[in-house]
Amino acid sequence: MSKIKMKHIKKRYDDKNDYVIHDFNLNIEENEFIVFVGPSGCGKSTTLRMIAGLESITSGELWMDDKLVNDVEPKDRDIAMVFQNYALFPHYNVFDNIAFGLKMQKHKKQFIKKRVEEAAEILGLTDYLKRKPKDLSGGQRQRVALGRAIVRDAHIFLMDEPLSNLDAKLRIQMRKEIINLHRRLGTTTIYVTHDQTEAMTMASRIVVLNGGYIEQIGTPEEVYNTPATKFVAEFMGSPPMNFLEGSIKNNQLILHTGEVLGNLPTTFNDLEKVDIGIRAENLTVTEEKQGLMMTVNHVELMGADLHIHGVVNGKEITVREDPKNKVSVNDTLFLKTNVENVHLFDVQSGKSLFEREKVEV
Ligand SMILES: Nc1ncnc2c1ncn2[C@@H]1O[C@H](COP(=O)(O)OP(=O)(O)OP(=O)(O)O)[C@@H](O)[C@H]1O
Ligand SMILES: [Mg+2]
Q1: In three state form, how does the secondary structure of 179-239 look?
Q2: Same structural domain for residues 72 and 192?
């Protein structure tokens, strides 16, 4: 089993409380690497645990291949899960930690040995099989936790923030290792994180969650370039997207200060109020004394990029520029942007005005 279909899935923990997952719909194809991303409390772990069978489904249908699995026991679901706070047994060595699940399932000794050695080979742990967890680095311990999932030979991997205990450098290394592992094994994977960079760099498709609702499902490119909602626009990308207030009249985009940004590429009805989203890389400092006037309040050299923070029309704005620009705090700069690159959102619903939403049923 490796395809997953989620149809109108809802979850509430008890009758007195509201739903924490509202109408979750998603089709996961074989070999996909799906990332659930969203802020704390949005329902990522709850959804993953429903797929694992560790949490009941209040209503809706969960299919794995051609089988409705709502009431199937976790052990019969052909999944392996890696938790955020994986606990290795401190008194067991690496071999026994990886072998634990297989021993519980009462497999033959020779079979267990073969499986553990294969997993150790894949994860680069062959030389460490006799060590205790305390004598391993954080990344090696994490790999042992992954090893436990791999030996199960399940068709679906579920991972709940598996890298959150690691420092930044190790996280980046493990990110690569997990992607390589997926490339090698091809196991359908659902990976949960609240880190948008992990989502962008690892996913074949991203599911952006907010308050128990799906905001958007799409490839990293789709989610970044055509965010369906203001929430997605703000959540995905670093630095976050900038927002200004404006209006649309005769297909011209006008800032609330009266300044005309330009003619919109597609036809829009007049709108008195619209949220205008502009990514930091779509703003450039111009020598001309016209455009958006910005007062600089902070400058960050990020190596290859310069992040200039300041205020435009009372709003905090970040511009990504070439570090060869010499900019200081309190400078007044003029910025220009191409109207082709702006994002427009309905001020009430937060939905993109460019009907680009991707909703699966
Ligand atoms: N056992 C439970 N009983 C009642 N409510 C719960 C339970 N577990 C989670 N919740 C609630 O369900 C909502 C979703 O929680 P969940 O753990 O799925 O969020 P999350 O997206 O995984 O967050 P985080 O990034 O912090 O791990 C939250 O409002 C949470 O308080
Ligand atoms: Mg969680």
Answers
A1: HHHHHHHCCEEEEEECCHHHHHHHCCEEEEEECCEEEEEECHHHHHHCCCEHHHHHHCCCC
A2: yes
pLDDT, one tens digit per residue, over 66-121 is 999 999 999 899 899 888 767 789 999 999 999 998 998 889 999 999 999 998 98
Q: What are 247-303's pLDDT values in tens digits?
A: 999 999 999 888 899 999 888 999 999 999 999 999 999 998 888 999 999 999 998
Q: Which mutation among 9, 14, 45 tests ligand 1's pocket best, with the greatest number of atoms within 8 A of CB?
A: 45
pLDDT-derived band at 358 (thresholds 50, 70, 90) equals very low
The rounded Å distance from CA 43 to ligand 2 centre is 7
Tell me, yes or no, whether 212 and 247 share the same domain.
Answer: no
Q: Does 299 map to a domain? A: yes
**Residue 184 included in any domain:** yes
42 in contact with ligand 1, CB cutoff 6 A: yes
Domain extent for 336: 239-345
**Inside any domain, residue 172:** yes
Does residue 17 lie in a domain region?
Answer: yes
Q: Quick one: 250 and 209 in the same domain?
A: no
Predicted confidence at residue 360, as pLDDT, reads 43
Q: Residues 216, 245: one domain?
A: no
Q: Are 67 and 147 found together in one domain?
A: yes
pLDDT of residue 1: 56
Binding site membership of 44 for ligand 1 (Cβ less than 6 Å): yes
Domain count of the fold of the chain: 2
State if residue 208 touches ligand 1 by the CB under 6 angstroms criterion.
no
Distance, in Å, from the CA atom of 145 to the CA atom of 160, rounded to the nearest integer, reads 12
Q: Tell me, using a 6 A CB cutoff, whether residue 85 lines ligand 1.
A: no
Ligand 2 centroid distance, CA of 223 (Å): 21
CA distance 76 to 89: 25
Confidence of residue 357 (pLDDT cuts 50, 70, 90): very low
Q: Are residues 199 and 93 in the same domain?
A: yes
Average pLDDT for the chain: 92
Query: Do 193 and 267 have their domain in common?
Result: no
Rounded Cα gap, residues 354 and 267, in angstroms: 10
Ligand 1 center to 239 CA (angstroms): 27
Ligand 1 atom with minimal separation from the 48 CA: 18
Quick one: which of 217, 242, 241, 220 has its CA closest to 228?
217
Same domain, 109 and 62: yes
